[in-house]
Specification:
The chain crosses the membrane at residues 40-59. Keywords: Membrane, Transmembrane, Transmembrane helix. With 74 residues, the protein is mostly helical. The protein has one domain (2-73). It has helices spanning 2-30, 38-73. Helix 1 (2-30) packs antiparallel against helix 2. The longest helix has 36 residues, at 38-73. The radius of gyration is 19 Å and the shape is rod-shaped.
């Protein structure tokens, strides 16, 4: 259940980022002046670190499950 919840949270975060990016790109296309995307300096590193952390947790849990199954079969 925990692994499934992690995947759902990660998917929601990426979906929210994609929606945000579409909204900002539509706004940027309507601008006549130059703009600086400071939001990407904050959002993208946090999202990437969160993704790495969640993938690490998913694979760690998977490895523990395999080791537990091996221990039961011996």
């Amino acid at each position: 259940m925990r692994k499934k919840k992690s995947k759902i949270i990660l998917g929601i975060c990426w979906l929210a980022f994609i929606i945000w990016e579409i909204i900002v790109m539509n706004w940027a296309n309507a601008q006549d002046t130059a703009y600086i995307r400071i939001d990407l300096v904050i959002i993208l590193p946090v999202l990437i670190l969160f993704t790495i952390f969640m993938l690490f947790r998913i694979f760690r849990d998977k490895k523990k499950k395999k080791e537990k199954e091996r221990g039961q079969t011996l």
